[in-house]
Known about the structure:
alpha/beta, Ribosomal Protein S5, domain 2, Rossmann fold, 3 domains, 5-stranded parallel sheet, 4-stranded mixed sheet, 17% strand
Amino acid sequence: MLFRTFGAGLCGTEGFPVCCEADVENGFPQINFIGSLSQSVRESSDRVRTAIANTGLRLEPRHVTISLSPGDVRKEGCAYDLPVAAALLGAYGYLPDTLTENALLVGELSLGGEILPVNGVIAMVSAARDAGLKRCFLPSGNLREGSVVKGIDCYGVPTLQELLDLLTGRHPLPEPAYYEDPPEELFSSPGFSDICGQELAKRATLLAAGGRHNILYIGPAGTGKTMLASRLPSILPGMTTEERLELTRVYSISGLLDPEEPFIRRRPFRSPHHTITPQALSGGGRIPVPGEVSLAHHGVLFLDELPEFKSGSLEILRQPLEEKRIHLSRVSGSVTFPASFQLVCAMNPCRCGFWPDRERCRCTELQVRSYISRISKPLLDRIDLCVETVPVTFRDLSRRPDKDSCLYLSQEVERVRRIQAERFRGSRIHFNSEMDVSQIEVFCPLPVKEKKFLETVYENSGMSARALHKILRVARTAADLAGVKDIRHEDLCEAIAYRSLENKYWNPAPEAARIRRKYHDRQKRN
C-alpha cells in the first residue's frame, strides 16, 4: 500500500517542501530509503520503528520502500522523522489520508515516541504555506515559533500517540495556534545620557546611525570606545515586520530563538571575541549554518580590539559589506545567508593603548606601525567614519548627565531615516550608505566651487575612489541631519574630517607624499 505525507527541508534560510512516500509490499523484510539523504536521515528508520513500537503499535515485517523527493536536493537533519513515521503508519493502514494530504509534518522522534523540537521551523512552515498546504503539525516546543507565519493552521503535538489520536479522529482538532505580539514595552538598554564628554564621537555616532554608515572608534584605552558602540542600538529605529521575519528565520535555523518570544523585536548587537575563527564569523560547517555576520543581520556587528582579530577573519568581511549577503560553498552544496549589518569597530592606536602620548606609551615607531597595519587598506576603505576618542576631563565626568539626550538622538535618527525612505522610494536601497555611483551623481550634486575643493582634497591625499564616494555619502547624511536639500561646504568638510585620521595613523607622512607629487609634476613640465 502506498501512502504519502509532506515534510520540509532547509536550504540556507529558505525552506522547501519534501514529499515523503512509503510503500509496503510482500518480500524480504527491510526498510529501503531512496533520495539524496544524509546519514542522520537514514538513521530515522531505527528511531521511527522503535518509537512506533513503544507507542503500542505492531508493524509486520514487510518490504518497505520510503522515498523523499525531490531526489536531487540533499536532505539533512532529524526533522523528517515525523513525516516518515506518518507515511509508514499510513502504508500499514493505521492512518487515513483525510488530514495528512494537505498537512506539513515536522519533528524529531525519541525512542519513547516523544516529538522533539527542531531548528528552522519558520522557514519550513513558510514553504508549506507557499506550496498550498493548509495545516501543519509541529513539536509542542516549536508551536509558538510556527504560529508566527500567517496563512496556515499550526497544531502542536507532544507525542506520536497524540498525533495518531488527532489524525484518526479519536481526538478533535483543537483551535490552531495564534501568535500575538506582546504589548510594546520600553527596553531598559543603556543610552547616551550616561556618556560624559566625547561630543565629537557622539556626533559621528549620530551620523553613523542616521545613514547606517560603518564607523571606527580609535583612541587611548579607557576613553569610552566600547561604551559608545554599545549605546548605538539604543538610538536605532525599530524593525519593520519584514525585517523581523527575515532575522527570525536566521535565528530559527541557528537554534537561538527564545521559545517564549519567538518573533525577534530588537535589532541584534553581536560582539564576538577577537579569537573568533573565520568560519564562526562567516558561517559554515558540514551543514552550513549562519555565522556572526548573518546573526547581526539588520543590526550591529561590533568588533572590539580590531587589530587583535585574525587577518583572515577581517578580510572575510569585505564581501558581505559590499553585497549585504554571504555565499558559502561546501561539499553538501552552496547556500547564501543574508548579512546586511552595520559594522562598528574600536581599536587602540598601539598595543599598550596610549600612543601618541610619549609620557605613557613605550612602543617604538615600528611597533606602532606594525600594530596599525593589521587593518588592511581595502577594509579601511569600507569604513565610512573614523573618529578619535580623547581622554575625558574631570570636569566632564562631574557634569550631571542629560537624561533627554538619548531620546533626542533617536528622534533625529528617525527623522533622517524618513528622509532617506522618501528619497529612495521605489528603489532597492534604503540608506545613504548604500548608494551606488549613479545614485551619488543624482542625490549628491556639488556646486562647481565645492567640486573643485573636493578634487583638490582627492588629489593631495591620495585616497581611493571608494573613499571619495564614502565622503559624499557621509556628506549627504550630514546635510539630511541639518535639514537642507543640497550638500553644503561644512557638510563636505565634516565628512572629509572623518577620513583625515587615516593619514594620521595609517599614512603618517602625507606631506612627504605631496612633496613627491609636486616634484614629479615639475619634472613633467620641464
